[in-house]
Amino acid sequence: MTARADDPIATLTHRMAASSDPRAPRAQQPRRPPGAVRPAVARRLRAIPAPLALVLVAAVVAACGWALLLPPFQGPDEAEHFAYVQHLAETGKAPSSTEYAGAGSHSSEQTAAMDGLGLRMLMAVPDARPFWNPVDLGAWRAFERDATHRQRADGEGLNPIAKNPPLYYAYEALAYRASPDRSLFGRLFATRLANVLLFLAAVVCAWLAAAELTARTWARTLTAAIVALQPQLTATAGIVNADTLLVAVWSAFTALAVRTLVRGPTLRRVLGMSVLAAASALVHGRGLALLPALAVVVALACWRHRPPLRPALGWSGAGALVLVAGLGAFRLFAATQGGTGGSLYGNQTDYIHQGGFGVWGLLSQVWQFFLPKLPGMPTALAPEYGFRQMYVETFFGAFGSLEVRFPTRVYDLLEAGVLLALAGTVAALVVRRRELRGRWHVVVGLAAICGALIALLQLVSYLALLGGPDPLIVGRYALPLIVPFALAVAFVATSLPRRWGPLLGGLVIAFGIVLQLSGLILTVERFYG
Amino acid sequence: MADGRSRRGALAIVLAMLAVLAAAFAVELLPRLTRTAPGIVYAPVPLGSRAPAAIPLEPGQRVCQQGIVFDDEADVVELLLDLSRPLVRAPLEVTLRAPGYAQRLRIVPDEHLLRLPFEPPRRAAAGTLCVRNAGEAATTLSASADPRVLQRTRAAVDDGAPLAAAFLTTFRTRDPGSLLSGVGTTAERAAAFSPLGPWAFWLLLGLLALVLPAALLAAYHVALRDRPKG
């Protein structure tokens, strides 16, 4: 059957007949065997490169390992994060971050599990163990059999996590409601698995970002594998914690930002980045750092690719509207919930008004965080906590309630590796400066993404230390930068002579496997040994 | 020719990765899997609890804690004398009582950490653990005033009012074995807090030990053999 070019109806009919369009005559539709995947989905699955698919398999195994092996509520603040999810899923409302009500921070059901099974006193006490004996388990199961909806829904506050925006908790509440196993641990496991999905998205985004920068499949694989094997990230992926959504959003933003910087801005790309920046702000207060990064990336892309002025202004306006709409929606939510006093982030941003702030003090504090003190500088506010504690120990591996740690020699090795990676990145940028001539804006854009988060974390930490001893900064907070970190390592590897680069990449992956398995073994020993 | 070199190169790198994995397994992972596990079975008032406290015991006084589970897996009970005071060698009588079960133990301390082996019950049972100062000098037990612990149990001296403290108590097994030899026990313990049974943990073991490294080695091998596009 052929179509005449000047007969649009015939052309459409011809195309329909030749396709699997359901409107096409039945006899011409290809038959699909029962249970077969739709052709479009099958095409998309086949399009996933084999190395990425295999890395994703490894990522699923690692994250599910943490989800299964870490006892309930033993992730950092996981009890409070889950309590928020439960209350939202059971009542449709967020708990209060300012007032005690109902059964308190956790529901009666959750409290019964935590106290009856020793899960509360387990936190950060290495010699404690969950109560796995038949007596305590039997008492818990008897309670759970008769637990009422009221006992699941009465965790009305005060929950300090409730000052967080609701995006992550709304997502997790869906998993909570969809759990086929209605026991408490079944619902918790479902929410942990939902978190694993976010982690997989971050791995995919790492691949996509690398794909914009290099045609070398091994370098893309290395980038994705670094994200998939990062022990702190996989451990966080296996618990209920908003940080994983923040990592997923920042990873997606990084991939889209790189694409925009390389290929140029379009309405879709600018809108996409704006949506992700709004989402970041709707996940956690720390997510606000993506807003200045967005501005820098869009400005760089426009400067480099020189799109026509009117469309560029239109895209920027559309992006700004998305941000305003997102923050406006959260403001509305906070006002209707009342639990945060109607303020954004429940006064988390009140640190700005902390007394004693000084620019020289801030600069000195940041300097001494990373480098030795110089003459004339005031002593740092928390001199025992700095680069190693944040970017090595708690960035790579501090599990459970941060009491499960690698041996010191492992941190020594990791610190050396991080410093080598930093030095290597700078050296590679210098050595390849001619090659990068047309791409410096990409480097600056990635640096802006990293700089924005690090600057916010350092500022908040300084302000917190002005009011108390807690530096309020931990390596997990830097995990949103995992994709730029992985890109930097891959960049260093691709800068080496031809045979050495892939070998370095392979050794990094092998080391990552060992680190991952080590972390899991240490955790099993701590909680069950 | 180029393809052959590329295949050999990719293979060489993957073999190097395997060598690193094997070395790391031998040096780092295997020792961890085969070293003696802590063997903690149940710790109603664990060492390292927050809000350290102390419970003094005059000669003849007895302090008890209720709601203590005597697990059939545990056959050593550990107590701790107050480390901030010199060692007092007053003999102590320790009794474990539950319905259908009783054990009376005696120890003369020769160090602050007291380890008392005992015969466990046939089945786990909840009961009372008591410590009596059978000597002529006062002694002091290390304790905790951690509210998380006190939710569970509190000490009471001579059947008096419950104190705002509980003495440190840990139950262990005399022969803990290693993580590797105790995989089955670990799977059962972990499964107690999971909607899935022990089978899931056996499956997980296989996935972590074999599938995770194999998937990554295969991914990198395929990637190394892939020619850059464009």
What do you see in this structure?
The complex is a heterodimer of chains A (529) and B (230). With 529 residues, chain A is an all-alpha fold. Helix content of chain A is 64%, strand content 1%. Chain A is globular, with a radius of gyration of 25 Å. The N and C termini of chain A lie far apart (72 Å). The model of chain A is unreliable at 1-29 and 339-343 (pLDDT under 50). By secondary structure, chain B is α+β, with helices and mostly antiparallel strands. Chain B is built from 4 helices and 12 strands, in the order H-E-E-E-E-E-E-E-E-E-H-E-E-E-H-H. Chain B has 2 domains: 1-34; 40-172, Sandwich (Jelly Rolls). In chain B, the strands form 3 sheets. Chain B has a 5-stranded antiparallel β-sheet, with no helix packed on it. In chain B, strands 1-12-4-7 form a 4-stranded antiparallel β-sheet, with no helix packed on it. The chains are: A mainly alpha (529), B alpha+beta (230). At the A-B interface, helix 3, helix 6, helix 9, helix 10 and helix 21 of A face helix 1, strand 1, helix 3 and helix 4 of B.
